[in-house]
Amino acid sequence: MNKITALTILVLLAISFICMSTVSANGYGWGYSKNSNHELPDIGKYKGMLDKYNAYYADDSGAKNIYLTFDNGYEQGYTDNILNVLKKHDVPATFFVTGHYVDSKPDLVKRMVDEGHIVGNHSYHHPDFSIMDKDAIKEELETLEDAVAEVSDQKEIKYLRPPRGMFNENTLKWSKELGYIHIFWSLAFIDWETNKQKGWKYAYDQIMDQIHPGAIMLLHTVSSDNAEALDHIINKLKKQGYSFKSLDDLVLKDQLPPALYGL
């Protein structure tokens, strides 16, 4: 290898490194200070950003409400079971779906809507929004919304969960301008590794250890542990005095004066 070729490679590597650093610096990966004291987790500097753009990660009212949300990127055979448990207990949930999921499992998307659940927008192709412009994000969201409308009676989507949990101030701002409400979460654990499931008790313990009033819970439907644990979780939390609410309840609560909410 001559000196010119070697120098060229070094320059290209340097440029690539700078580009990758710039891309990663464009966005934030959602996160919070996990605790086991049954209190709302601290999200630090993110709180001001979420408040500014009317985004949510929890219900901070102090009420013992739980908001079940599921991310559906692909189907592993457990969503029917999850829907059965939700129906048994008359518990609402929001399912954030991708284009692949809608295309491959339109019957399940239709069932979600028919049984009173909310279908949320997880984008069509699951890209990193923090490295995209507004028009590209708009196309991702509208394409997914159209796909859901084709297979179900839900014709509009107002809740958005950003793919990969990536966001920045622009994505929050643009999504709000496009009519979407960002929904993050205050309770989650590593449940999506399908080849590393540890039994329903593991999922149950992870959730009960982190549970707190106002939790927006993120679960993945590809987890066999979650599917088996859900009935136990709902039973236990109801016995502890928790109520299961929909995201519509959460948003309506914030839009109405306290004296009127619940009337």
UniProtKB/TrEMBL annotation:
Superkingdom of source: Bacteria
Protein name: Putative polysaccharide deacetylase PdaA
Pfam families assigned to the protein according to its UniProt record, in alphabetical order: Polysacc_deac_1
Keywords: Signal
InterPro entries assigned: Glyco_hydro/deAcase_b/a-brl (IPR011330), NODB_dom (IPR002509), Polysacc_deacetylase_ArnD (IPR050248), Spore_PdaA (IPR014235)
NCBIfam families: spore_pdaA (TIGR02884)
Residue span(s) of domain NodB homology: 64-245
GO molecular function, one term: hydrolase activity, acting on carbon-nitrogen (but not peptide) bonds
Signal peptide extent: 1-25
